[in-house]
């Protein structure tokens, strides 16, 4: 058996199916995308090779591309600095509550994640509606009528309104991952710390947060990837509008490919999109160097 | 009988039974394959997902009647909303798996690349002799003198309004732009949305802008010429029209957050009698008979010309009209002849035009006056009168007259104008920049 498995031809034969799938399902489409990005193909007829023209145009003159990237980064920052601290705090609270209430709260917070994005997006469009929407109605009820807005229809509020929807939709996932991480920290550590005199917030800053660092890293990575590839919510609520105020990269790429008939250009955007994702990922890996905790 | 003889008899019987069953099987297969050979499957891609009212109902009725008349034909319909339709269509084109018969918009921004690339089958003019199509209606479905599609409707822009709301608040149905602004102010004061519009879809804003250009300048060609000559920024009529549009936004002429409202949302607002007016095309003629709308709405819905502008050169009878939606047959279809037969069956004047008109479902692309019965709805009568009184028509609207990217960018600029992200001057400068890039 060992003789057979150490035979190079046998190894190649066994690896071949996986290699073929990888080549045709991943490598080839990427190479094709790079090639199409160097053409002016409209999706109909034959593509013309134009070299790096599309890339130059995107980088130097396409303001919507940069705005879309900026919006995606803003969403990522909102996830990291707003959604996650709240999700962590709620995960700790739910963990503390215990018993049946713990299960109930866990389910309640996870509900938005199991409802299709189409449904939640439509729901938020209704909530934001300036005429019959609940948000303006509540502001009226609280005598805060001066805060009423045309949420999704105003240049100033469209982006933040979309970001709020995205954060709400993803809150349950963030909470669930932190919650699972919390459950993995042994209770003895807290008991030992308490014996040593640690109390209250100190327990969380000195034990919970450091031990959750790998979980935080995973959660942050997921959030950033989700922010960069945000598409459905934007498409279903504002479609990037008004103008390009709430435009995101994936949606912009889609508009270029399917509305403008600029398949080549859209492919060039997708290549730059992948590069941006990789750059963010590398940066992230540098910030969160691997650490090992033993307990 | 001896044992040997019995063996021989049994063997003969078994062999005979085997031979008979094998022959039977072969014959059965032959008959089956002969009958399957006759079955023709036609894939039909439509942009009318509502199969119970308006054009979707008519399309389904005709498909069903065709299948009834031709039991060997099976038509598979895939119906999607406009935007998903465009995307799915692109996927079919990119993968070279075109449906046998598909809906097309007869606009250069949509159909020209399809015709140029040879995806649509030619329709000989002899085949539609006596169908009642005017040559002008076929113009945008032709390339290099050959016809590749047939229009199903006559589309023109009008102002729908709710008689009940106008009477209740004692507002005059606007005939001038100033009256429209004043009417908007009254409805606003009373908590009614003046004009329902689907600003999220963008195209409607670009069409409304052209409406104002025509009413200001009185020249249907002006906007096309300015873009073709790339002299947009300094054109005073184009500037005035852009300012008119912003003015309409400033007085609260549209529902709140209209920029985020899609087609369904705007249509519902008007149908629920929460908006006094609705700027839309003649294809909404079915509102008067739609079973999903209330009786009160159906009683109150009416239609008029878009108002003229005091000081402007345009007349109320200068209307935006074109033949947008239609059908084409795939050039690479394996059942091209059958698909063509279906298209010609559907578009026969006694079907799409006659049935569609008499049931109040469409304003046909073919002449429909001979199908008038006197039992038409108010909308049908008024729309007929508006169209027949037209002194000039636009043809394909400006944003659809050039490249697909011109359309996308120009519509986004219109949305930015009404959202006040850019000034009218900047809007025109941007359109000029776009024209320089996109219009050869």
UniProtKB/TrEMBL annotation, chain A:
<dbReference type="InterPro" id="IPR000515">
    <property type="entry name" value="MetI-like"/>
</dbReference>
<feature type="transmembrane region" description="Helical">
    <location>
        <begin position="263"/>
        <end position="284"/>
    </location>
</feature>
<keyword id="KW-0813">Transport</keyword>
<feature type="transmembrane region" description="Helical">
    <location>
        <begin position="105"/>
        <end position="125"/>
    </location>
</feature>
<feature type="domain" description="ABC transmembrane type-1">
    <location>
        <begin position="69"/>
        <end position="284"/>
    </location>
</feature>
<feature type="transmembrane region" description="Helical">
    <location>
        <begin position="159"/>
        <end position="180"/>
    </location>
</feature>
<comment type="similarity">
    <text>Belongs to the binding-protein-dependent transport system permease family.</text>
</comment>
<protein>
    <submittedName>
        <fullName>Sugar ABC transporter permease</fullName>
    </submittedName>
</protein>
<feature type="transmembrane region" description="Helical">
    <location>
        <begin position="12"/>
        <end position="36"/>
    </location>
</feature>
<keyword id="KW-1133">Transmembrane helix</keyword>
<dbReference type="InterPro" id="IPR050809">
    <property type="entry name" value="UgpAE/MalFG_permease"/>
</dbReference>
<keyword id="KW-0812">Transmembrane</keyword>
<keyword id="KW-0472">Membrane</keyword>
<keyword id="KW-1003">Cell membrane</keyword>
<feature type="transmembrane region" description="Helical">
    <location>
        <begin position="72"/>
        <end position="93"/>
    </location>
</feature>
<dbReference type="InterPro" id="IPR035906">
    <property type="entry name" value="MetI-like_sf"/>
</dbReference>
<dbReference type="Pfam" id="PF00528">
    <property type="entry name" value="BPD_transp_1"/>
</dbReference>
Automatic annotation (TrEMBL), chain B:
<dbReference type="InterPro" id="IPR050490">
    <property type="entry name" value="Bact_solute-bd_prot1"/>
</dbReference>
<dbReference type="InterPro" id="IPR006059">
    <property type="entry name" value="SBP"/>
</dbReference>
<dbReference type="Pfam" id="PF01547">
    <property type="entry name" value="SBP_bac_1"/>
</dbReference>
<protein>
    <submittedName>
        <fullName>Extracellular solute-binding protein</fullName>
    </submittedName>
</protein>
